[in-house]
Amino acid sequence: MCRNITTLRGLDPPATDEEITAAALQFVRKVTGVTKVSDATREPVEQAVQEISGIVTRLLESLPERRQPPKSVPPLRRPEVQARIAQRIKEREEHERMHELGIAHTH
User: Fold this and answer.
1) Which of 53, 73, 83, 106 is most buried as measured by Cβ atoms within 10 A of its Cβ?
2) Are residues 15 and 50 in the same domain?
């Protein structure tokens, strides 16, 4: 279905809330065709992601253990993805700091 959604059942350690939410967001994006959340789509997308995350969490908790681990590593556990996320967070914090200090910058 969607190559960006990875198997979360059977991970060691178990899937985190962040991984479940990321998978739910990818699912919502896929089925709706919303590639970028806007002001017009934010509320329904966030509501759907929250509901789907809850469903997936309960589903993963109720399934028996897997006999074999998943074949692929979820993106949020890959070092290159973690580095990109850390860089984006750093850039966002620097940008917000510029706003706080009233420093001119570009958007």
Assistant:
1) 53
2) yes
